[in-house]
Amino acid sequence: MRTSLGKGRRHARVALALALPITLSLSLSPIPVLAQPSPPVSEVAPDRQSSGEQNGVALMRVVVPDEAALDRLNSMGLDLAEYKKPVEDGIEVHAVLSPQETRSLRDQGVDVRGAIADQGDAAANAAERRSAIAESKEAASETDTLTVLRSEWFTSLDGQRFLSIEVKSSATGAETVLTATWDRGRGTPPGSGGTATMSRLTDVGQYMYHRFTTPLPVDQAPARATITSSNGGTVTVPVTKWLGEPRKPPGRHYVADFVDHYMDPTEVTGRITALAKEFPRISEIVDLPYKTNGYRRAAQAQFGAAAASTFYVTSKAYGHEGGNDISLALVKPDAPSAALGVTVTGKDIVVSLATDASAAVGSTARQVVDALNGDAAASALVTASTYRGNAGDGLVAAAQATRLTDNLKAPQAIKREPFQVKALRIGKSRTGAKTGVFLYCQEHAREWVTPLTCVETAERLLRNYARDAATRKVVDDLDIFIMPTINPDGAHYSMYDFNFQRRNMTKHCAANFGDPAARNAWGVDLNRNFSVGSYFDGYSGASASCTSDTYAGPAELSEPEARNEVWLTHKFPNIKFAMNTHSYGGYFMWPPGAYKAQGRETLPRVDFGTEEYFWKSSGHILSAVQSWRGTAIWPGRTGPVPDVLYSAAGNSADEHWYNRGIIGWDFEVGADVYNQTTKQFEPVGFQPPFAEGHEEAMEFSSGQIAILEVARAYARDEERPESDLKVTGRTGASATFTFTLDEPANVYYTLDGSRPTLNSPKLAAAGVREGAQQITVGKTTEVHWFAVDIAGNVERGYKPDGHGNNYRKERVVVRTP
C-alpha cells in the first residue's frame, strides 16, 4: 500500500536508506537474492528501447525472494502499489520509482525489472484516450454497419456442441457493445437458443473485431443468429457447421499408435534411424550439416552470501571434459596480516585469504577474483567473476573445498557432444521430382508432445505403406521430410534439468549473467532466430535480452538449429509445403506471423487466393484432427498468426514462406479440454500427463497425414479454376461487383479494356477475415479477367504472358439518371 510520506520526504528517505550498507538476506544459499537475472532496462520493453532507460518516474516490477525481503523494501519507504503475486523465483511487487531510485536499488542487489508504465506511456494513453473519445462521439452519431466474419457451430471431444461468432463493427470505439442471439435449429423462434454479449478483441491498441472469449456451449445446433449493436446496427446470418467434413476411413488394415511414453531427442533420433534401416526402399536419413552446441556446460561453483561478497568460478573445460573434476577451497590463515595467495595442485585450487592485524579475513570478492584470474595455474583451469557486475567489495568468508559441477542431470547415455540432427526422408521416388513436404517438431524444448507427433506420423507412413492404399498413394506421390526434434540440446535439458526450458543451450550472455543461478535463462528462442520479420527488422514478439525466453539471438540465423531448417529447404527446392508443430492451446495458423507494434504493421499478407487456400485446406486438416477423439480446433484459433495469437518476430514459417514460397502452417497441439462439471475450458500445458499427451500426438499426427493429402492433391491438380463476375450493388451513379470462384484462386483484372496479365490488379481481401473485396465503378465498364489457382492452373488455358484473348469478359452497366 502507499505510504503516508509526502513525495519530497519519501525521496529523501529512500536516498538515505540506500546510502546505508543494507543488503537483502540471501535465502537461496549459496545464491544471492537475484535468483534470476534482470534484463537490461533497454531490453525489457521494445517500446522503450530507443531511450535505453525508463522515461521518468515509472511503475516498475520488483521481485524479492520472500516476505521478509518484502518487509525490508516496505520499511525503506518505497512507493509500493497495492499489488503482490507469487512468481517462480519469489514475490513480485510493483513500485513507483524514479530512474535514480531504480539504479540505486539495483546497485544494492535488488531485482528491479522492467517498467510496466512510464511517462511515455502516460502521454500515449492520454492521446489515445482523446482520439478514442473523439471517434466514439463521431461513431455514435450514426448507425454502425456490422460485418459478420464467421458464424459457426461445432462439436468437440464428447459431442458437446459449441457456437463461435466473429463480427466487425464499423464503430470501433470501446463503447460499442455487440449482442448475439440464436435459435435452436430450423423452424425454431429467433433467440430461442440463447443470448450473449460479445467481447471486443484489440491488438496493440487497434480494434480487430468482436467475438466470444471462448466458444459457447449450446444444446442444439443453431440455424441462424442475429447480432445487434448498441449503436443500432443489426444483421442476421446463417450458422454453418465448422469441421466434420466426411472423411474416408483409413484402410481396413491401417495401424496407428506407435508411441507409449515421452521420448528424449536421443530416443527420437534413434527411432527414425531404425525406421530408415527397416524400410530402406522408401526411406533414408538426411544428416543436417550444422551440429548443435551440444548438451554441455562449463562447470561452476559459487561462493558468498550477500551480492557484494559473492563470486563464482567457471571452468575453461566443459564439465564432462574435466571441468567437473576441479575443486576450489577458501582457507583462512590463523596468522595475522597474512597475504592473499593461490595454490594449485592438479585440479584442486586453494585460495589462502588475506587477514588483517587481528587475524580477521580481509579479502574482498573482487580481490579473490583478481587473484584467481592473475594466477597462471588457476586461470588455466577457471575464470573467476564477481556476481553480475557487482563491485565485489564485500569480504569473503572461508569455505571448504567445493567441487565444480556443470549441473547437468541427464544419464551418461545422453551424449554431451554437439548433436547430429537428422531428418527422415520418406518417398518411393526421392529424386527431387516429387512435391516435397517438410514436417518439423520441437523448436521449443519444453514441448514434449510435438516430437511424438512427428514420430507417430513417420511410423504410420512406413508401416501402412504395404497394407493401406491411401498411405501408399501419399508415399508414392510425395517427397516427405520429417525432422522430429529441431532443438535436441534444449529438449534434453528440459527433460532432465529444467522442464520449462524453451530455448537451445547456446550461452550468449556476457559474464554479468554467467553465474549458476542464471543457468535456466541461457539460450536462443529458435522460433525467433530466422531472417524474415525479425527483431532486428523492428518486428514485435522477440527480445534482445540474452536472458529472455524470446531471445532472438545475437543475429539472424545465428543458431545451427535454425540454419539446418534453411539448409534443408534450399537443398531440396521441391519442398512446397511445411508444418511447424508446437504446443499448446489448439491453434492452426499460417503466415504472416509478425508485425511491428507501431501501427500494427504486419508482414505482407498472403494474397486473397492463397488465404482462401489456407482456409479451405484447414477444413480437411482439422477434420482429420477431430476424427481421432473429437477435438475441434476453434474457428477463433484458426487463421494467420497475428489474427489469432500474437506477433512472433523471426519465426520459421515466415522464413520459409517469404524466402522460398513454401506454404507453411503452424500447429499448436493441446487444445483446451472442456470440463462438463465446471462448464469451463481448461488448458493442458506443455507436458500434460502422458495419457493426454498421447491423445494429442495421435490426433495431430492425423492432422499431419491430412496435410500430406492436401499436398498430394496440389501435386496432382490439373483442373482449371472457373470464375464469375457478380454485381452486388447499384446506385444511380455506380455499380459494385466482385468475383466468385469454384476453388481458391487469384483473379487478375483490368477496367480499361486492356488485356489482363499477371501484372494487372489482383482481387484482394476486403479486410481481415472479411472475404473478397468489392470493386465499385462510376461508369459502364468492360471488365477483363482470368483466374489462377494455387497449383498454377489458368482459367480456360489462357496465357497471360502470350497474345491470346480467351480471358473472361463482362460489361458492368451503370445506369445514370
TrEMBL record:
Cleavable signal peptide: 1-35
Entry-linked Gene3D superfamilies: Zn peptidases
Cofactor: Zn(2+)
Limits of the Peptidase M14 domain: 385-711
Documented EC number(s): 3.4.17.18
Its biological purpose: Carboxypeptidase that possesses the specificities of both mammalian Cpase A and B. Thus shows broad substrate specificity, being able to cleave Cbz-Gly-Leu, Cbz-Gly-Val, Cbz-Gly-Phe, Cbz-Gly-Lys and Bz-Gly-Arg in vitro.
Similarity comment: family membership: Belongs to the peptidase M14 family.
Name listed for the protein in its UniProt record: Zinc carboxypeptidase
Organism expressing this protein natively: Sphaerisporangium siamense
Species lineage: Bacteria, Bacillati, Actinomycetota, Actinomycetes, Streptosporangiales
